[in-house]
Every structure is written in C-alpha cells, then in structure tokens.
Design goal:
By secondary structure, the chain is an alpha/beta fold. Helices cover 34% and strands 20% of the residues. The chain is built from eleven helices and 15 strands. The strands form five sheets. A six-stranded parallel sheet has the order 12-11-10-13-14-15, with helices on both faces. Helix 5 runs parallel beside helix 10. The relative contact order is 0.12. The model has no long low-confidence stretch (mean pLDDT 93).
C-alpha cells in the first residue's frame, strides 16, 4: 500500500511528493538454476521453465552416471511453498513499480512474460573508459593467458567444457588459465598451468581486471532461460580495458545479440567449436589483437 502513498504535508512548511519505486533486474529470477545454491534456496520455484510443486525433489546425474539429489522440499532451507509466495509478491512489486529497469531486451522480456503490465525499460550496460586506467603490463614472452571471471552462479556454464579445457591445456604447455572469482577447477587440469584467484571488492575490480594481462577472455553460458536473460557484460569489460583481450563466448543470449562472430569476438556452440576456435586464438596473436581492437571500437 505504501507504493500508492499520495502527496502530503509532512509539516506546516514541507510538502512530500508521491512515493515512487524503481526495480532494477539483471537476471531472470523466475528461472534460477538449482546449482545456484543460495539464490535457489531462497527463490527457486522452477527447473528449466517447469513450475515445481510442494514436495518436489531435484536430482542430477554426476560424472560417474550416478543420480545425486540436489534439493528436497523442506530440507537445506528450501521451502517451495514459501518461495512460490515470495515470487508471487515479486510479481506484484514488478506490476506496482513506477519503472522496472533491465540490462538487456531479453531481461525485459523475462519481466513482461511474468507481468505483462510492468513498465519495463532497457538500460544497457555502459562503460566509462576513464575508469579503466592505462597500466604498464609485463611482457609474458610466449606465454598465452586465458581468463575466466565470475561468481558461483556459473557451474552449469563452465562444467560442460571441463574436458575441452583439459585437452587445450595439455596440448599447449605455454598456456595459463586464470579462474578469478569462484575458483572452479577439476583434478585433470594441469596444476602448473592453473591460477585460482578469489574475488575482491568491486571497487577494486576495474583496476584488477586492467592488470590481469590476459590475452583471451572466456565467456561460458548455457542455453537456458536463466542464461538467455543474462547480459554480455564480461565481453564488454575485457574489451573496455586499456589493453583489451579477445573474447571467446558461447553463442547464447546477449552474446549473439551484441557480438559479431569473427569481427568483435568468436562465438561457439559446441565443445568441438570451442576447442577449434580457442586453439586458433592461442596460435594467432594477430587475430587476438584484431578481435580485441574491433570490440573496443
């Protein structure tokens, strides 16, 4: 009811205008992946677009082909009935808000799918180049550095490419992989070619990214409802730094909307295409520089 609060006198001399609420969203919160543990525990009500009922059990198949239970209603803090009520309230809030800002058209579509009367508006990611400083970077010689950066919401995006990454690293001893943020890694990845970095305060992020000195920026995304609503900000960030990096990204969602395959990035749809294009980038420094420069332009 506070969203409808009218203008009013707060004292004999002060007048308060009507209350307005703006909601900003960068994700399809109605389709959070079960592997995204904390958010799913609090808001998970669907799996791959299918609504869940109280009493639901969610299981997956592990690498050994065994069925592993991820969630059971009423355990680990996951309460389907509670989450359904919370998301019902979120829909109400989206409908009452004066404005709902979204980072991509696909994010806007996810809002309007649930709340057709929402006053949604796309405000794309913007980059202030002055915030990405010029940094003197060391000469790595023949070493080629790959970077993946992100939070612990990307397990289902990265895991399908673990074997491909293993093959690339073992075939190219001069390649180094930096996993920054959530340090996903698997035993078969050569430890001597792997660097795991924890996350840092966002106020340090742009400087730290500018100093990462990476040649190739890896962006993994799966073709799920949640993934399709995400933005291509990882491509933008590694293109905005003073020494931009070439991006290799999944042909999914905003990457297909914003990147030009072969001109401002390379896109892939399978493990085979990922391996072929990544090897091409490793071997061809001119291609890396051309893609990175085009992306920055």
């Amino acid at each position: 009811h506070s969203l409808r609060m009218p203008s009013r006198w707060t004292s004999e001399t002060e007048w308060e205008p009507p209350f307005s609420m703006v909601i900003d969203t960068d994700d399809d919160l109605f389709n959070i992946m079960p592997t995204n543990r904390d958010p799913f525990m609090r808001m998970g009500t669907r799996v791959n677009g299918q609504d869940l009922e109280p009493g639901a059990v969610i299981s997956v198949e592990n690498d050994e082909g065994k069925t592993v239970e991820l969630w059971r209603d009423g355990t680990q803090g996951w309460d389907v009935a509670r989450n359904l009520e919370l998301m019902r309230q979120y829909r109400t809030n989206l409908g009452l808000a004066a404005l709902v800002t979204c980072s991509t058209p696909r994010s806007e579509q996810s809002v309007l799918r649930e709340v057709p009367n929402a006053n949604a508006f796309v405000m794309p990611n913007c980059f202030n180049f002055e915030e990405y400083p010029e940094v003197e970077l060391a000469d790595k010689g023949k070493k080629v550095r790959l970077l993946w950066q992100g939070s612990n919401t990307h397990l289902e995006d990265v895991a399908p490419y673990r074997r491909s990454i293993e093959k690339i690293l073992k075939a190219n001893p001069h390649v180094e992989l930096v996993m920054w943020g959530e340090p996903y890694h698997w035993p078969e990845w050569p430890k001597e070619q792997l660097k795991l970095l924890g996350w840092n305060d966002y106020r340090e992020f742009k400087l730290r990214l500018s100093m990462m000195n990476h040649d190739i920026n890896l962006c993994f995304l799966q073709d799920y409802a949640f993934g399709n609503a995400r933005s291509a900000i990882k491509w933008g960030e590694s293109s905005a730094i003073w020494k931009p990096a070439a991006t290799l990204a999944s042909r999914v969602g905003a990457f297909t909307d914003e990147c030009i395959d072969g001109e401002t990035a390379l896109l892939f749809s399978s493990n085979e295409e990922f391996e072929t294009k990544l090897q091409g980038l490793i071997d061809d420094a001119t291609l890396r520089k051309t893609l990175a420069s085009n992306a920055k332009d």
